């Protein structure tokens, strides 16, 4: 198989998998059958394209092939007559060419995979499989879960969707804000796992996952143009991902340690991603100024990251503006983790003693970042012994090798207790 054919099949899988699965799900009303037929179509492409050449419209070829595979399978099943007749009445023997309606089908597929009747872990696995096209082994490796467990989740999810008759549709206008939030939460979780992996047995930063989360978020944004409810948060999430991803080249040192924002080489940041992220943030600011809805969680987080990435040097960071943005975020999302992040900014404005008083009130004893933040604040206050204890606790709780490497180094810089 030539490199050009391999590249064509890879690109087709990346760009057409969700289209094919979504189209067949709408047509046959069976997510499992749609997935199987799509997989067969791609397997056929691997067999035929090297011999026959890449078709002019790979998406149409795959959709046609998958549909015929699905119809052939229905003919072989005991219930084939009723199902096949229904398909025939709707479409006839030859499937229609892919059209703009497929975009709506993909959006329906995303909302189906992220239906609130499914558990959060299942939503992630199903979205990555059905919309992202990742294999079960890839999903299992990404989240350090056994392949069999991922396979069971996906199988049970498809069965539940079928048994519960979960509708294959975009939610109504009334339902959209709440349902869209669930979709964005799934995409954000996927991105975060790639941004800083939770397990010690995987790479600390997973570019494949961050790239997939960005791609899927772009897709949702493209498929939800000009929707009044929720589209601002989609744009906000995309901006947040882009501005975070832009810093990836500078986040891990040559020795595999995490590099904090303050210490990063800002010349290594991806300026194109930063410019795109800033443009999206400005777009949302203008929309709010024009009377649009108040910014939500993702828009505020994106704005905070825009302030960080706007500073050419860490010393130029507008910490007062960051605190003000966190103040707004705390009002709409009063969580201890948000309060912890706000305290980091407060330390730069009002000093580490004020920030430490805020941090010590938070119920986050089992969260490694809580202890890492305390360690840094105690370090700045000259309370080295307490800082060592906080570093030790943070290291115990951190699962990422880059984080543990950084924490270990920071602790060692304090010196031995008897050297003070």
From TrEMBL:
InterPro entries, sorted: DUF6596, RNA_pol_sigma-70_dom, RNA_pol_sigma70_r2, RNA_pol_sigma70_r4_t2, RNA_pol_sigma_r2, RNA_pol_sigma_r3/r4-like, TPR-like_helical_dom_sf, WH-like_DNA-bd_sf
Single GO molecular function: DNA binding
Domain RNA polymerase sigma-70 region stretches: 19-80
Keyword Transcription tagged: yes
Residues of the DUF6596 domain: 179-283
Domain RNA polymerase sigma factor 70 region 4 type positions: 110-161
Keywords noted in UniProt: Sigma factor, Transcription, Transcription regulation
A GO biological-process term: DNA-templated transcription initiation
Region named Disordered: 78-99
Superkingdom: Bacteria
Protein family (similarity comment): Belongs to the sigma-70 factor family. ECF subfamily.
Name of the protein this chain belongs to: RNA polymerase subunit sigma-24
């Amino acid at each position: 198989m030539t490199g050009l054919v391999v590249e064509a099949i890879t690109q087709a899988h990346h760009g057409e998998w969700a289209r094919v699965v979504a189209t067949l799900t709408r047509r046959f009303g069976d997510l499992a059958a749609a997935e199987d037929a799509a997989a067969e179509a791609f397997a056929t492409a691997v067999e035929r394209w090297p011999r026959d050449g890449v078709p002019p419209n790979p998406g149409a070829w795959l959709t046609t092939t998958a549909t015929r595979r699905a119809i052939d399978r229905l003919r072989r099943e005991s219930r084939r007559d009723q199902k096949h007749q229904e398909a025939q009445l709707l479409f006839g023997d030859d499937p229609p060419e892919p059209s703009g309606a497929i975009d709506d089908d993909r959006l329906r597929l995303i909302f189906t995979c992220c239906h609130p009747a499914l558990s959060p872990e299942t939503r992630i696995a199903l979205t990555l499989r059905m919309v992202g096209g990742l294999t079960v082994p890839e999903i299992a490796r990404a989240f350090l879960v056994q392949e069999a467990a991922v396979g069971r989740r996906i199988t049970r999810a498809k069965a539940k969707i079928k048994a519960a008759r979960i509708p294959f549709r975009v939610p109504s206008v009334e339902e959209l804000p709440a349902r869209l939030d669930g979709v964005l939460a799934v995409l954000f979780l996927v991105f975060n796992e790639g941004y800083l992996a939770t397990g010690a047995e995987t790479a600390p930063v997973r570019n494949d996952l961050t790239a997939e989360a960005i791609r899927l978020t772009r897709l949702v944004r493209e498929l939800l143009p000009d929707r009044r409810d929720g589209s601002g948060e989609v744009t906000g999430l995309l901006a947040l991902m882009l501005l975070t991803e832009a810093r990836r080249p500078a986040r891990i040192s040559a020795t595999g340690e995490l590099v904090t924002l303050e210490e990063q080489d800002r010349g290594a940041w991806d300026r194109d991603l930063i410019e795109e992220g800033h443009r999206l943030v400005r777009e949302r600011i203008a929309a709010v100024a024009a009377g649009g809805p108040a910014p939500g969680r993702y828009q505020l987080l994106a704005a905070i990251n825009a302030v960080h990435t706007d500073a050419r040097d860490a010393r130029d960071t507008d910490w007062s503006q960051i605190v003000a943005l966190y103040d707004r975020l705390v009002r709409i999302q009063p969580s201890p983790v948000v309060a912890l992040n706000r305290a980091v900014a407060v330390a730069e404005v009002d000093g580490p003693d004020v920030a430490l008083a805020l941090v010590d009130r938070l119920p986050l004893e089992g969260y490694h970042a809580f202890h890492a933040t305390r360690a840094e604040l105690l370090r700045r206050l000259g309370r080295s012994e307490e800082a060592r204890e906080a570093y030790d606790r943070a290291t115990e709780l951190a699962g990422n090798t880059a984080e543990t490497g950084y924490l270990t180094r920071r602790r060692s810089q304090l010196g031995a207790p008897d050297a003070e």
